[in-house]
Write a structure and sequence with these properties.
Length: 675
Amino acid sequence: MRKKAAKKRTGWLIIGSIIVLLAVGSILAYFYLNSRSEAKDAEAAGEAFTDLLVKEKYDQLGGMVTSKSLQDAGFTKAAMQEKYQTVYDGIGVKNLKVSNLKTTEDKDGRYQLSYDLDMETSLGKLRTQKYQTTISKDGDTLKVDWKPSLIFPGMVKDDKVRMTTDEAKRGDIVDRNGIPLATIGQFKEAGVVPGKLGDGDEKTKNIQTISEKLAIPVDDINKALDQKWVKADSFVPLKTILNNVMPEATGLTYAQKELRTYPLNEAAAHLIGYVGEVSAEDIEKNPALNVGDVIGKTGLERVYDKDLRGQNGGEIKIVNDATNNATTLQKVDRQDGKTIKLTLDAGIQKKAFDSLGSETGAVTMINPQNGDLLALVSTPSYDANQMTAGISSEDYAKYNNDERTPFLARYATRYAPGSTFKTITAAIGLDDGITTPDKTRSIEGLQWQKDSSWGNYFVTRVHEKNPVNMVDALVYSDNIYFAQEGLEIGKDKLEAGLKKFDFGEEFDLPFTMEPAQISNDGLNSEILLADTSYGQGELLMSPVQQAVAYSAIANKGQMPGPKLVDSAKQGDPKQAVKASSAQTVSDALKKTVSDPAGTAHGLQIAGHNVAAKTGTAELKLKQGEDGKENGFVYAYDADTPNYLMVGMIENVKGRGGSGLVIEKLKPVVEMMYQN
């Protein structure tokens, strides 16, 4: 009986022990799981706080921090949020990234939060900042214990963050001789001092007077005066003065201002472009930009903006006015922009622009021996200085609505080249042995067609001559002769020859230009082949492309790679045609000038061998229509080909045709012979 009782007691003891162990285990499991849940909550609190930082949602940070920590730091939620906004916005903080985010429990059961923060300021990338704090209960919720050092390590309540900027000087754009084409100039800026305007009716009258004298709407002046920062003694800028005319009026005064300026202005506006303050769209495209930055908006100012702009320097400090303590957060040395030197000649550029005057046209000048572009002119143009100083919407609309499209860079716009192109057809024919200087064609009358299969289509010429050889055809610009030569050369050989002149190829130049075109879909008819051979059909070439192609005629058949920026890598020259073929054509072009009946005789300059070819390209949809005409001329020195000019004027019909182009641009050619 005793044994049974003992055995029974032992069983109960075992059962009791198991129950106790299960109870203890449950309790331990409860605390363990609760601890795990709390650890996850602490981790989530740290992530939520830093996530708002990364998203720059500073106005929501107050909900992520404990009330006690704010109270201990002497801040309200609103004041803490405003502090972040003021400090970070003030130094241009962006692109924040959190790394090494850790939440750990210390031996006292407190949660420790640490993380690294990378960011960019207006001065560039800031070194990694390391942060530490704790996470505590705020009511029933775990939140971050906040302190000023979570803005920047080491900060205390009364610290401020200040930034000084050392602005980089924008680099100049200069011509081949170092003459500035874009530089920094000193201007006067008109503005008003509010306290000197008077009150009531007197103020209204004075603003009206200033409005009239500066040609600024009264509403614009009042908006400037209503800005938050304006005080009675403030200088409120209104307009940059570009013409040195400074009217006087009560309350009106002037200050000195540095501004990008363009000495050639309209004469080089399409090429050089202009600068302006960044827009929101600019910043979206390039996050490295900041509000207030000045960048290139068009032309070479835009293409080489990064090199020209340089890098601003400056310093960001944590300062305490009470203790005079200061800690440097970031210091960057200023790097001024580079100077961009062009192959352009400012004197030739200005002369060509002035010579075109009010005409709608273009001038391209190149050195055919080395490919240096010496002038790139387009008219009509626009005031680049006005664009940079700030153009009114009314003045911009005048440019934008002008049917002559003053913003269009015509030197890079494709046109049918007209009869100037005959020199290329002649060179290709000579290369293939089809054309020879002595070979003649019997051509009667001013109209011709191959046969009746051409229907009502005829090729026409201006001068009646029979028989006609290649030299005659170039001197008198005979369309019929070159139409017949083109048909004999044939589609395949003509297209193959034109490929050697870079048709269909893009040039490595810092402006937009579509490749030269032979045809829309191939020379698929005899009529198109004939028209193409004398520079019409569906041929399209910009003045720049013409200048490069015609360089082969002046330079022993060799076509140089065009170059605009002095330091740019230049493409290798190409042998477009044989030297002998080029020389034969060049000899004929000398006669187009020296022969009194030659179409370019107007370019004759005593004591010099000028070679030239003129051309008109008729723009019409079908034969029989009265289309507009563009006039062309290209000229170079036949003895020392250090220049080749291609000039074009639109709508010359009834105004002298290509003769008008010679009349306008002869002064440019003459300039090339002046010491």
